Every structure is written in structure tokens, then in C-alpha cells.
């Protein structure tokens, strides 16, 4: 099964850089062959939210939800089942300080 | 064979075999709805055939085969499910779990673990366990949990689709996940029991029947997990609580505290079984919260009266329980036991420490317990103040009546100080 992991960081928790660094997690999951793709996002302050209402394109500054936690990265993983996806997600450093949402892909 | 007897045989087979038939069909087809539908049809077929052909020697195997044949028929009609059909038709039981005497593989353990997967919301785990393992209908489960039938149906549908879509595996978890997942299964069964137990003062039979279903499921779990002492602990705990059901409520429908219950009304058979099951569990020497709670319940169940209870042992058991389950409610119960064993002064010291910690703020049993200990120490004005505090926090009418009576008993029941 394929899942997308939304990796969320909590900006209000001051976390030492080395603890939040996902590098060793990335290396481990790449070596296991379960991480198909991953990307890091710029902070929520650089986000622009786009809506169209009627004919008007409405823009707002920032992420769509006003929270102290926002999606800092995405990883596409492939593994046997939800138990394995949970295990992979729970090893991500951000799971300790923020949270990781595991979402199955919509597949045929 | 007469019609009535055959109907009784089908009813018994339903009680005994429903969960097993559904569990096997889910494994074979991977489709929860199809499994339920085919199981239902198999039982309908039994009602039609058994009067004519006689009750089969192994009803479970007969029903599973009938349900499987139905599944093959239905899948054959859906061409795009060809791959699945292949699986069912060539069904090899290589990976089948342990078989019982009748030779039918028992998939119920993987069904229980899947229904109780922690990625499902707790209320859905409870509902799904009842629906798939006991065969209670959606309408019955809805009534038992005091929600409308459409709400319950939605809850079940959502849970089943999450299992499929999110890839919750249909299996008994591997060893490294087993302790945690077993905890989830035990918690679901205990919640089920407590739902029924809380309703035992009420008139709704379906709600009360939850206790019996919970006991049946706990018993099943001990058979499926014979090496798990906590499963036995949970079964023992349920049996020991259940044994007191006839004495818990008086003629007016009020709750009767343990101390004042008519012990002649306790079910001796259930107490005997509960104690035996508990002893078998404790012999494994891996005590956990359910075994400890059952051991406490056993002390009460085997005592001749409140005064003749082994409070020293109960105190010791609570001390151990508080170590495994660090909950302030456990510590409050521990304080009550200490008060019985070593006197109200010693108990009050623990209750006051709890009160100072603020952990149980708003919980009416904290001031109610304090009031009781103060009363026994003859400190009546303080007792009355604590009863008033408890009265302000109690949520049920029965509890308020009980507390008001106690308050009157202090002789200090005039209007409270401003």
C-alpha cells in the first residue's frame, strides 16, 4: 500500500536542530526501500492560499488553517499495511515534537 | 426432528458459530460486508435445510461451507473480482490458524484484533466487535449504546471502510506489537461489560445483555489466547462483578453499596468460577491490572460480610495496582481500603494528600469518601461540609439521594455556612 505522510512541526516548541533533523530517518527508510519520495516545504509564512469564489480569485497569506503547527514536509511511502506505516511514521523525529498524519492514497 | 428443536439448534449455532463463520469469510474474501451477508444467508439456509436433512454433526463446518459457497456465487457474478474468486475457489488452508476439534479453522482471534485496532475510534471498535463476533444486529447495538440506528450503521460502515482503505491488516499482531494490542482488546471488552453493568439498574434488557456478551467474548479470548493471564484476569473480574448483580439494586431501584448488599443474593456459582479462573491466571506469575482488580473483587466476593473482609490483603493489592496503573481513582480506592484495615485516620491522611494534589478536582467521590471518614472519626461539622461538597458534584439522582441521607445522619444538615 502507498501512503502519504504529512509531517507537521510545531513552531511553538523550541526543538534543537539536531533532534529535529530527519536525515537519519530518511537514510534508514531509503535503505529499507519504503520511502518512494519526500520533500521539505518552506515555512507556512511563505504559503499563499488560493480560493476561487464566483469569478474572483481570492488570495490569502499563509497556510489554509491558522495554527501553530503546519506541514513541513511530505513523504510518499510504500509498505505492507497500516501497522508498518505507523511504525515508519513513529520513527520520524517530528512525531516527537509535532505530529505525522498517515493518509492512504486513493488507488483504483 | 420437530421444528422447535431444529430452530433451537439453529439459534444455538448462531450464538456459537456466527463469529467464526464471519471471521473465516473475511479472511477468505477480504470483504467485510460480503462476509456478513454470506454468513446471514448460510443461517437462513440452515433454517430451511436442517428440518429436512437433520442438524449436521459439525454445524460450524456446515455453515462455513455454505457461506463460502455463497461467496463464490456472488463473486462469480462480479467479473471484475476474478482474482478474488480465484482465491476463494482454490482456497488453500495453508495459512489457516489453529483448528478446533471440528476441523474448522478459527479466525476469530484475528477478527478480534482487527476490530480492536487502535487506529479505529474506540466507539467503533466496540460496535464492530459486537456486530462481527456476537452477531448482534445494528439495531440492537444502537439501542445498547443509546444512539439511533442510522448513527450506529454509519459508525459501522465508516469503521469497515477504514479497515479496507487504510490497510489495517487482518491478522493477529506480531510479537513486538502483541502486548499493546492485547491491551486494546481487553479494554474494549471491559468497556463493553461496564456499559452493561452501569445499565443493570435500568429496565433495558438489551443493555443488560451486554454483560453476558462481554463475558462470552472474554471467555472466548481465554480459549484463543491460553497463554495470556490478563485475559483470564479480565474474565475473572467480569464474573466476580456479575455475581453481585442481583444485590446491587434495591426494590426502589437505588444502588446498594457493597457493605450493605444482601450477600445471599450473590451468585455463588459465578463466584466459584471467577475465583478458579483467577487462580489459574495467578499461577502464571505475570500479574497485571485485570488480575489485580479481580483479586480485589475476589476478596470481597469470598468475605462473609463487610467486617469479615480481608482488608489488609485488599490494601496490599491496591498498593500493587497503583504501581501498575498510576491513577488517582485507584489511589482513592486504596485510601478506602487503608481506612478499613488501619482505621479512618490513616485513610484520611491519604485522601487529604489526594485532595491537596488537585488531581481529582470535581470528582464527587473524593469529598464523599472524606465525609465518610470524618463521620467515622466523629468530626461531624467537617463531615457535613464534605457531604455538601459531594452533593454539589454528584451527577445522578440516586447518588444525591444517598448523600443527602448521609448528610442528614450527621445531625448537621441545617443550611450550610455561607
From TrEMBL, chain A:
Coiled coil: none annotated. InterPro entries: Dimeric_a/b-barrel, YCII. Residues 38-107 form the YCII-related domain. It comes from the Bacteria. Belongs to the YciI family. This is Transcription initiation protein. The lineage of its organism: Bacteria, Bacillati, Actinomycetota, Actinomycetes, Streptosporangiales.
Amino acid at each position: 500500500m502507498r501512503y502519504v505522510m504529512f509531517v507537521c512541526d510545531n513552531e511553538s516548541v523550541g526543538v534543537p536542530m539536531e533532534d529535529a533533523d530527519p536525515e537519519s530517518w530518511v537514510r534508514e527508510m531509503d535503505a529499507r526501500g519504503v520511502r518512494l519520495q519526500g520533500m521539505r516545504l518552506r515555512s507556512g509564512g511563505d504559503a499563499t492560499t488560493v480560493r476561487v469564489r464566483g469569478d474572483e480569485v481570492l488570495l490569502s497569506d499563509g497556510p489554509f488553517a491558522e495554527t501553530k503547527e503546519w506541514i513541513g514536509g511530505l513523504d510518499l511511502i510504500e509498505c505492507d499495511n497500516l501497522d508498518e506505516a505507523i511504525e515508519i511514521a513513529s520513527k520520524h523525529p517530528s512525531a516527537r515534537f509535532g505530529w505525522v498524519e498517515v493518509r492512504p492514497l486513493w488507488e483504483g | 426432528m420437530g421444528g422447535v428443536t431444529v430452530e433451537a439448534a439453529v439459534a444455538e449455532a448462531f450464538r456459537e458459530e456466527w463469529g467464526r463463520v464471519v471471521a473465516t469469510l473475511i479472511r477468505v474474501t477480504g470483504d467485510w460486508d460480503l462476509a456478513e451477508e454470506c454468513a446471514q444467508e448460510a443461517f437462513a439456509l440452515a433454517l430451511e435445510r436442517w428440518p429436512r436433512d437433520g442438524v449436521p454433526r459439525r454445524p460450524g463446518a456446515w455453515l462455513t461451507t455454505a457461506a463460502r459457497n455463497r461467496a463464490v456465487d456472488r463473486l462469480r457474478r462480479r467479473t471484475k473480482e476474478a482474482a478474488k474468486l480465484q482465491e476463494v475457489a482454490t482456497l488453500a488452508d495453508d495459512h489457516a490458524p489453529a483448528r478446533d476439534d471440528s476441523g474448522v479453522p478459527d479466525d476469530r482471534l484475528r477478527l478480534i484484533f482487527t476490530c480492536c485496532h487502535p487506529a479505529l475510534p474506540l466507539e467503533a471498535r466496540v460496535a464492530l466487535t459486537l456486530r462481527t463476533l456476537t452477531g448482534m444486529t445494528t439495531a440492537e447495538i444502537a439501542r445498547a449504546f443509546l444512539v439511533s440506528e442510522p448513527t450506529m450503521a454509519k459508525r459501522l460502515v465508516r469503521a469497515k471502510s477504514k479497515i479496507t482503505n487504510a490497510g489495517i491488516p487482518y491478522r493477529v499482531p506480531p510479537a513486538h506489537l502483541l502486548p499493546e494490542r492485547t491491551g486494546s482488546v481487553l479494554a474494549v471488552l471491559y468497556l463493553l461489560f461496564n456499559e452493561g453493568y452501569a445499565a443493570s439498574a435500568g429496565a433495558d434488557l438489551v443493555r443488560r445483555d451486554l454483560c453476558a456478551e462481554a463475558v462470552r467474548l472474554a471467555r472466548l479470548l481465554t480459549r484463543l489466547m491460553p497463554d495470556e493471564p490478563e485475559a483470564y484476569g479480565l474474565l475473572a473480574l467480569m464474573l466476580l462483578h456479575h455475581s453481585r448483580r442481583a444485590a446491587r439494586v434495591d426494590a426502589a431501584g437505588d444502588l446498594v453499596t457493597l457493605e450493605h448488599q444482601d450477600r445471599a443474593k450473590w451468585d455463588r456459582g459465578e463466584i466459584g468460577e471467577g475465583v478458579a479462573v483467577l487462580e489459574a491466571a495467578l499461577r502464571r506469575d505475570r500479574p497485571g491490572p485485570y488480575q489485580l482488580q479481580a483479586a480485589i473483587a475476589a476478596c470481597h466476593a469470598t468475605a462473609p460480610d463487610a467486617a469479615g473482609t480481608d482488608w489488609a490483603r485488599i490494601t496490599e493489592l491496591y498498593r500493587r495496582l497503583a504501581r501498575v496503573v498510576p491513577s488517582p481513582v485507584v489511589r482513592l480506592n486504596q485510601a478506602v481500603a487503608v481506612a478499613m484495615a488501619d482505621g479512618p485516620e490513616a485513610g484520611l491522611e491519604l485522601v487529604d494528600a489526594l485532595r491537596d494534589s488537585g488531581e481529582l478536582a470535581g470528582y464527587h467521590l473524593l469529598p464523599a469518601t472524606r465525609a465518610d471518614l470524618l463521620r467515622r472519626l466523629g468530626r461531624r461539622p467537617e463531615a457535613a461540609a464534605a457531604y455538601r461538597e459531594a452533593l454539589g458534584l454528584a451527577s445522578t439522582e440516586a447518588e444525591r439521594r444517598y448523600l443527602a441521607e448521609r448528610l442528614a445522619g450527621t445531625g448537621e444538615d441545617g443550611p450550610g455556612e455561607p
